[in-house]
């Protein structure tokens, strides 16, 4: 039986005792035991015996929820989150962007843009966009910077990038706030000019993607993607 909330299975366990010992007397009675199993319709039920080909409801529910993105400052070897947010000029900021994909189909994470501002308001002035144009790490083009995306990725749902420390000229507070726009595409979708992670290679004087063909980065040079 299907109800609004459950799938109900009913059956009966029939017990018919066979006389043992003296056939003239019996010591047990026949019985019928009703059995009823209720399975919630909005849950996953599996004995792990087979892999279902249907999409579990929890996946459907998860796809309707917001994806939990994260952006963390990491230690120099990327092993742990950095405790201190104080840097000296000449040091390197190690950023790790990630997304918890839960039950989603495999996703690939991208950093669309990152802007630095002296206040928490990402639209305030002055500001410096060190990642721009849908995934171009433009800071790496500057003569005094070595900023780059880290390739290969540790996982498709993680993207790491290193940026040389900087400060705003004439700003005595020495505070910098970072605001980044993160997004995902399906992992099996080939990178394109709108979904890419491109670094500038000074040795070759060319833009190079973390994955995909080099042509996805061509718009970084034109600064219009």
UniProtKB/TrEMBL annotation:
Component of the zona pellucida, an extracellular matrix surrounding oocytes which mediates sperm binding, induction of the acrosome reaction and prevents post-fertilization polyspermy. The zona pellucida is composed of 3 to 4 glycoproteins, ZP1, ZP2, ZP3, and ZP4. ZP3 is essential for sperm binding and zona matrix formation. It is a single-pass type I membrane protein. It comes from Phoenicopterus ruber ruber. Its main location: other. InterPro entries: ZP-C, ZP-C_dom, ZP_chr, ZP_dom. It comes from the Eukaryota. Keywords: Cell membrane, Cleavage on pair of basic residues, Disulfide bond, Extracellular matrix, Glycoprotein, Membrane, Secreted, Signal. Pfam families: Zona_pellucida (PF00100). GO terms for molecular function: acrosin binding; structural constituent of egg coat. PANTHER family: ZONA PELLUCIDA SPERM-BINDING PROTEIN 3 (PTHR11576). This is Zona pellucida sperm-binding protein 3. Belongs to the ZP domain family. ZPC subfamily. The ZP domain is involved in the polymerization of the ZP proteins to form the zona pellucida. It is found in: Zona pellucida; Cell membrane. Residues 1-205 form the ZP domain. Proteolytically cleaved before the transmembrane segment to yield the secreted ectodomain incorporated in the zona pellucida.
């Amino acid at each position: 039986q299907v109800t609004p909330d459950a799938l109900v299975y009913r059956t009966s366990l029939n017990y018919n005792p066979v006389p043992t010992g003296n056939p003239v007397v019996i010591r047990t009675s026949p019985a019928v035991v009703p059995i009823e199993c209720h399975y919630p319709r909005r849950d996953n039920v599996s004995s792990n015996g087979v892999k279902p080909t249907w999409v579990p409801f929890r996946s459907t529910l998860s796809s309707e929820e917001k994806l939990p993105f994260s952006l963390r400052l990491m230690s120099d070897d990327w092993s742990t989150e950095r405790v201190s947010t104080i840097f000296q000029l000449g040091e390197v900021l190690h950023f790790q962007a990630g997304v918890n994909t839960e039950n989603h189909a495999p996703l690939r994470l991208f950093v669309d843009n990152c802007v630095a501002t002296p206040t928490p308001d990402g639209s305030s002035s002055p500001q410096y966009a060190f990642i721009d144009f849908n995934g171009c790490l433009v800071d790496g083009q500057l003569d005094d910077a070595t900023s780059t995306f880290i390739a290969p990725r540790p996982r498709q749902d993680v993207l790491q990038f290193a940026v040389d420390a900087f400060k705003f000229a004439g700003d005595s507070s020495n505070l910098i706030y970072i605001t980044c726009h993160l997004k995902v595409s399906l992992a099996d979708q080939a990178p394109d000019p709108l979904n890419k992670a491109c670094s500038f290679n000074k040795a070759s004087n060319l833009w190079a993607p973390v994955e995909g063909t080099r042509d996805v980065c061509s718009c970084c040079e034109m600064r219009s993607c």
